[in-house]
Structures are given as C-alpha cells and as structure tokens.
Amino acid sequence: MAVQAQYPSNVFRLNSGKNRQQQGYDYSSEPHTGLDQSHMLFNNGGTSSLKRGREESAPNIVNPLFSLQSQSHPSQLIDLTQLLNHQQNAVSTGLGLSFGDQQHQQQHRSPSPFLSLFSESLSSQIKQQRDEIDQFLRAQGEQLSQALAEKRQRHYRELLNAADESVARRLREKEAEVEKAKRKNAELEEHAAQLSMEAQVWQAKVKAQESTAASLQAQLQHAIMMSHEKRALSCFVGQAEDAESAYVDPDRVTLSGPKCRGCGSRVASVVVLPCRHLCVCVECDRHFRACPVCFTVKNSSIEVCLS
C-alpha cells in the first residue's frame, strides 16, 4: 500500500545558522537534526489554523535572496509550535510563507523516508501480531482438543468402572444365590438321609413285627392242636358221663379253647403284645391295659380265630 507523506501545517522549512541570525531568531535551544514526531504526525491543533490564516493574508511573493540561501544551505524542519513558544513577537513575512507553501506541496508530492519506515514497521508489527494471534489460537485449539480428549477418556473410564462394578455386583449376587442353593441342597440331603434312616428303622420294625406274627402264628397252631386234643378228650369223658347220667344242664357251655383270664366264661381269642399271651377274650381286651398273666403293659393285641 502506497503511503503519501504529508507534513502538518505547523512545520516550517528554514535555513540553518546564518539565515536564522539574519532573521533575528535564536534557535540555539531547538534540535537541528530531527523532527518532533508527535507534532508532525498527530498535532492538528490551533497552530495549523494560524498558519493558514497567515498564508491567506500574506502576498504570494518569492524572495530571490531567500531562495538562493535555501539552495546553498540544506533545509531543516522545525515545529511551528516551538517557534511560536520561543518568539511570540516574531512576525513572518509573506515570502517565507510562500516558500513554505511550495515546500509543503513538494512534501505532498514526494513520500518521506520516515513515513516509509513507519509504514514498514507498522506492517511488520501488524504481521507479527497476526502471527502471534494465529499462534495463540492454534495453542488454544490444541489445549481445547487435549482437554476434550482427556474429558472423553475420563468419561470412558467412568463408564468402564461403572460397568465393572455392575458386573461385579451381579456376580456377587449370583454367588450368593449359588451359596444359598448349596445350603438348601445340603439341608435337603441331610433331611433325605434322616428319612432314609427312619425308613430303615421302620423296615427293621416291620421285620420284627413279621417275626412276631410268625411266632404268634406258630403258637396259635400249637394252641389249636392242643384244643383239638382237649376236645377229643372232653368228648370221650362226656360220653362216659352220658352213660352214667341222662341229666343235661341247660346253662352249660362247652369250651373249645383256653379260658379267658378276665371273665372266665368265654374262650380266650386275643393275643396280647409284646408278651404274646393268649389269655383274654375280645370283650375283656377292651378293658385290659396290661397282660393279666405277666402284667406287661400292652401296646397292641391280635385277635385269632380258633377252628
């Protein structure tokens, strides 16, 4: 971008040393090698309006002597505000103002090296700042990406931990259920073993009862045989008595077995257990709680049929 150098209206171009002494000004206290950049570039105050007023009022006449002196001596730039501060009573001529206008137009036509340097410095600073901004944005983007990645990894780890805890909790629950089932199975097995033992006991009791029944059957058979023998004997005796006497007692009862130990009038037809005595009839068995022969406590009884 092309920058056109412009000097503000509060700057004069004057000759050095000798010309100043001829004009009656003393600029010994002013700098001769540089410019006041603050007034040259940024001062747009009342001095510029004062100069324009003087330029409008002064005649446009060029002094040949002043022009020759300006060609023989190198010109320098001073600030108008400094000139007004040092010489409040100095009056500028129209020749000087016309020469200043000419120099001002030349400054408008040719760019200043200082402004070129300033523009280059400004563009370099802008480029540097743009690079710094880009670098800062890249760094911030990298930090943001890293933070998002860390947050994502943290979220994944939390999800994995939650899943592990859930699986571990379910495994513990299943293990507790398995342990409970094992305990229940052990209890059932123990109960089954107990029932098996009880069944064996009952089987032993049944076998004992079968042996007892067999023994009672044998006793009954023996008793039946004995009764038959007694009946035969009684028949033989009865015939002898009939022969001796023809009288028959109507209340006489002929017994065909052992006599009941309870009533004494009926035949004993019930075996008392566990002593196995055939000693009572059916009617007396209902009233006896013990055997009338050995006085053993009765736990059961069996009725037998004697023929």
UniProtKB/TrEMBL annotation:
GO molecular function: ubiquitin-protein transferase activity
Region (Disordered): 1-53
Biased amino acid composition, Polar residues: 1-26, 40-50
Recorded coiled-coil stretches: 164-205
Alphabetical keyword list: Coiled coil
InterPro entries assigned to the protein according to its UniProt record, in alphabetical order: Znf_RING, Znf_RING/FYVE/PHD
PANTHER family listed in its UniProt record: SBP (S-RIBONUCLEASE BINDING PROTEIN) FAMILY PROTEIN
Record's protein name: Putative transcription factor C2H2 family
